[in-house]
Structures are given as C-alpha cells and as structure tokens.
Amino acid sequence: MTPTLVREHLAHAGSAPPRVNPRKRARDWSEIQERMLLPLHETVHERLEVGPGTRLLGLACGSGLALLLAAAKGAAVTGVDSRPEHLALARERLDPDGPLDARLVQGDSPADAADDDSSPYTLVTAYETVGALDDSGDLGDTLAAALPLAARGAAVVLAGWGPPERCATSTVLRVAAKLAEPLRGAWRPARRDDLEEVARGAGLRPDGSGRVACPFGYADTDSAVRGLVSTGLFDAAIAATDRKQVGKELTESLHPYRRPDGTVWMPNVFRYLIARVP
C-alpha cells in the first residue's frame, strides 16, 4: 500500500518502526493480507495477456503472490525488495531452483535486478497502493530507475485505492491518520489523478486504466487488525502512540463491518493504471 514499491510503495513500504516486529508483520502480510489484492493481479495479468514471452519485473514484490501467479502462466519473473523477511517468504513460494522461471533479488533499487544476460523486461509492476501515503515522489524515482531495464513500449502497472466512498476500508484507515498526526507518512485518501501524476513524473505515458473490486475479508477482528497493520499504513500511528493503542482503535473502527458470525467484511475498489515506457 510503503507504499514502497520499491519502498513498498504501494503500502507496506520502508523499514518497520521499532515497535513493529518485521518478521511477524511479513508473515501476517503473506498469510492474511496479500490475498486481498488477488483480483487486482488476476485482472491485470488477463488484460496484458501475461504468459510465455512475458519478462516481468516486480518492484517491492513482497512475499511474491503476484509473481507466483505470473510465473504459473509461463512468465519469466524477477522480484526485487529491500526487506529480507518478505523475500524469505517469496522464496518459499517461488523456489528459484524449482520449475518456475523466477529470480528474487534483495535490494533498494530496481538497478539491483539488472541481469546482463537477459533481454529487457516487457512488464514492470508496482503493486503498491499509490496515494495511500504521501510518498509518491519516492515511487516516481523508483520507476524512473526501472525504465533502463525495460523494453521500449513495455507496460508499467501502478495501483491505488479507488474513491474513498467506494472503499469501506478508508473509514478504518482514517484511524491511522488521526493517531499519526502531525507525523509525516500517515495515510491519506486517494486522489483522482494520483496514478497519472506518478506515471508522468517518472517519464511514462498513461495508456489505459481500470477498476477492480477487492473486498477485504477476515476470519475475525484479530485477523483484521493483524492484516491491516501488516500493510505498513499504520507505522506512523504506531510510532506516535504504540501498537496496543493502534490495535484498540482499529478494533473499535472495525465494529460496523463485523458480521453476526464474527467475520469482518469490507467492500473496496482498487484502481490500476497501465503506462508505457517511451
């Protein structure tokens, strides 16, 4: 959602604050939260006809779900991420020594994924939620650094939250903004042109967009809190208060979305933008 990509830009970016256990958060992301974006990944892969012949570079690839989906379609995938805890989980999924054409690289820059023996990438993905944090400039720099690795005309995919009124989770994320004030790095609502502004700032040409329903569903409130914290969108709030206070406020804000059986369900819409390398 850092967002890194590659800070995890999109929403689980940057290094964890002292009050967050990086290994636990990575596991919570992998086991609870990452699957919420599965409809987004599947829609993008279908629209761009990902498959044999696709060379994909995943920025801030996290624990590798999107890469796994692409590799299973026959794509050659490379993931780069600065967080060893997330990459360790990605390696469990992708097994670079196994049958899938997958490579994982720990690094702070897309340049770390350069491979002199390979042809340019035909697809670059930045599946972090652009606009969730006020760090779009960082993402623009990351994308600009990735362009020399991509073929001319290659697709670059950015993702972000849809309109706040279409995202039930936005009301919960306001807790992050309230607790984090006045620290920089708090969540903010998405703006209509967030994706386009980042793409153009990186020297890319927007070439189509779409919206995808990505509901957040959890087995119970505890799972919801763990999953949401794993995005990194509450890091500033945790730094400003503490993990217990954030958990308490989150639990209260989730109450309207609890079902009689104890599960938590929040409808959301995510937006993606396809841009092209000039």
SSE arrangement:
Elements: H1 22-33, H2 38-47, E1 55-59, H3 65-72, E2 76-81, H4 84-94, E3 102-106, E4 121-130, H5 136-146, E5 150-161, H6 169-180, H7 194-201, E6 205-213, E7 216-218, H8 221-230, H9 235-240, H10 243-253, E8 264-266, E9 269-276
Helix pairs in contact: 1-8, 2-3, 5-7, 6-10
Description:
The protein has 278 residues and is α/β, with parallel strands linked by helices. It has helices at 22-33, 38-47, 65-72, 84-94, 136-146, 169-180, 194-201, 221-230, 235-240, 243-253, and strands at 55-59, 76-81, 102-106, 121-130, 150-161, 205-213, 216-218, 264-266, 269-276. The chain has one domain: 3-Layer(aba) Sandwich (Rossmann fold). The relative contact order is 0.19. This is Methyltransferase domain-containing protein.
Quickly list its features:
single chain; 278 residues; alpha/beta; 10 helices; Rossmann fold; seven-stranded mixed β-sheet
What is the CATH C level class, in words? Alpha Beta
Instruction: Estimate the strand proportion.
Output: 15-25%
Order of H and E elements: HHEHEHEEHEHHEEHHHEE
The CATH architecture term is 3-Layer(aba) Sandwich
Distance between the termini: 26 Å
- Radius of gyration over alpha carbons? 17 Å
The percentage helix is 25-40%
CATH topology: Rossmann fold
Protein name: Methyltransferase domain-containing protein
GO molecular function: methyltransferase activity
InterPro entries: Methyltransf_25, SAM-dependent_MTases_sf
Pfam families: Methyltransf_25 (PF13649)
